[in-house]
Write a structure and sequence with these properties.
Elements (H helix, E strand, L loop, with lengths): L3 E4 L7 E2 L1 H16 L5 H15 L7 H11 L6 H14 L4 E2 L4 H8 L4 E6 L3 H12 L9 E4 H4 L7 H10 L6 E5 L2 H10 L3 E5 L11 E3 L9 H5 L2
Parallel strand pairs: 1-4, 1-6, 4-5, 6-7, 7-8
Antiparallel strand pairs: 2-3
Helix pairs in contact: 1-4, 2-3, 3-4
Length: about 230
């Protein structure tokens, strides 16, 4: 019987318009540095720097953008980096939002299950978004948050699942993982013995999980099915 539900963050608990994000970020950097930037190169280097950031190997947005600009061979002084880091946080309100009925869905699920977040990401950004854009603290609904930034391991390693299960004194069979990425969420969770809930927003065919849903709000209607896993 499932006693806990663990959630991925990106595109599961928090939605993003990625095309809009990249457009706004490229425009911001071009304006501040007064240089033209190739979007594809910017995205590739941003993602490479993000991989380092989400493992907690750097600890601030200023460090992140300094690393990014060095990867891009762009000169930026400390004031420019500081302005870009600050404006980046404010820009986020334009391309991120919560899934429909987020608060009601998690409140209802919390009556039946322990809830947790197990995810790889730069979690200071999530905490900022929830507090400043969504109006409440990120961990409002959760019994625990286990993330790569804090614990220095990616979800794919299995270490984050081990930590979360130990904190709740549960075995892997007692928990289900909810995520939107079939490979890095469903298959990874299954590999480490958890039950799986696939948030299949694109209706991708031939994707097997213990339960498949199209939207997060469906979970509140599947309590019996979740408990029976």
């Amino acid at each position: 019987m499932v006693k806990a539900l663990f959630f991925d963050l990106t595109d599961t608990l928090q939605e993003f318009d990625w095309k809009k994000q990249w457009g706004l970020l490229v425009s911001l950097v071009e304006k501040e540095l007064k240089q033209k930037i190739k979007p594809e190169e910017f995205i590739n280097k941003y993602q490479a720097a993000y991989e380092i950031y989400r493992l907690g190997k750097i600890k601030s947005d200023k460090e992140f953008f300094d690393l990014l600009f060095r990867m891009l061979a762009l000169y930026a002084n400390k004031k420019q980096i500081g302005r870009i880091a600050a404006k980046h946080m404010e820009l986020r309100r334009n391309y991120t939002w919560l899934p429909k009925d987020y608060d009601r869905t998690l409140t209802e699920l919390g009556k039946y299950f322990k809830l947790g977040v197990v995810s790889s990401g730069v979690f200071p950004w999530a905490y900022y978004d929830y507090k400043h854009f969504f109006g409440f603290e990120f961990d409002k609904h959760f019994d625990l948050v286990v993330d790569s930034y804090t614990y220095n391991h990616l979800k794919e390693s299995g270490v984050l699942f081990e930590i979360a299960l130990k904190k709740l004194n549960l075995k892997s069979k007692d928990a289900a993982f909810v995520g939107n990425d079939y490979v890095s969420d469903v298959l990874v969770a299954k590999k480490f013995g958890l039950k799986t809930v696939f948030l299949n927003k694109t209706c991708a065919p031939k994707r097997k999980a213990d339960i498949s849903i199209k939207s997060l709000v469906e979970l509140s209607k599947l309590k019996k099915e979740l408990l029976a896993l």
